[in-house]
Amino acid sequence: MKKINIAKALKGKGMYIAIASCAVVISGAGIIAYNMAIDDINTDITYTPPATSQNITKNPDSNINEQAGISIEIGDEISKLAGTQPKFMPVAGDVILNPFSNGELVKSETLDVWKTHNGVDIKADIGTTVKAMTEGNVIDVKQDPMWGNCVIIDHGNGIEGYYCNLSSSVSVKAGDHVDAGDPIAVVGNTAEAEISMEPHLHFGLKQNGRWIDPIEYINPSSK
Fold first, then answer.
1. Inter-CA distances, 92 with 3, 142, 169, 214, Å
2. Are the CB atoms for 132 and 153 separated by under 8 Å?
3. Which of 26, 74, 86, 109 sits at a 20 to 30 Å CA gap from 67?
4. Which residues of 183-195 are buried (b: 16+ CB within 10 A; e: fewer)?
């Protein structure tokens, strides 16, 4: 049987044990140093919330929002961008002398002929203010031989408004931008095609080149 020199074996193992012990000590020292470094970093770092995290407050007097010192208009500007400006009847009053005929032939009181009526005749005294139905750009101001003095407004989204039978007191010109409810003219008596009728505004709307009912467009619940 082979004899084992225990002292020699222990001496060899002792060397390995010593090496392992040193490794543990070094590792522990490294962990301690790492933790101390992290603590120093955490001590030096101070978190400051960004300015944009401030609460948004509304100023009821100016109808604006303030965020990080920046004022943002939220009223008419958003309405314009969204295309949601209100729609107004162009003249005050709810008496319709002649409704939109939707392509059907109706008897013209003045011309004594059967023809389509491509707009609505809204009763209004001469001199009554005529307002833009909604925002848009004036594309023409003209004197039509049948419909008298007219203002034509591009209201966007393929909608064009024809405001006819106006007096010569027109307050806009081609190229002007108008907002909903802006005054553009006053009612006159210049439409030869309807000269025998009571004073009124002849108001027509086209959508993508096709005549539509102005009343239904302004107030869809009217029918």
1. 123, 23, 18, 15
2. yes
3. 86
4. ebbbbbbbbebbe
- Strand runs (DSSP E) across the chain, as ranges? 57-59, 64-67, 70-73, 96-98, 105-107, 114-116, 120-123, 129-131, 136-144, 148-156, 159-166, 177-178, 183-186, 200-207, 210-212
Enumerate residues 6+ apart whose C-beta is below 8 A from 163.
90, 130, 150, 151, 152, 153, 184, 185, 201, 203
CA-based R_g, the chain, Å: 41
Q: Which pLDDT belongs to residue 223?
A: 54
User: Which residues are bridge partners to 96 per DSSP?
Assistant: 122
The DSSP output letter for 137 is: E
In this predicted structure, what is the pLDDT of residue 19? 41
DSSP 187: B
Which pLDDT tens digit goes with each residue over 77-98? 433 433 568 999 999 888 999 9
Under a CB-based contact definition with an 8 Å cutoff, are residues 202 and 165 in contact? yes
Look-up of token digits 């203010």: 129
DSSP at 208: T
Using 50 as the pLDDT threshold, list the residues of the chain that sit under it. 1-82
Look at residue 109 in the predicted model and tell me its pLDDT: 87
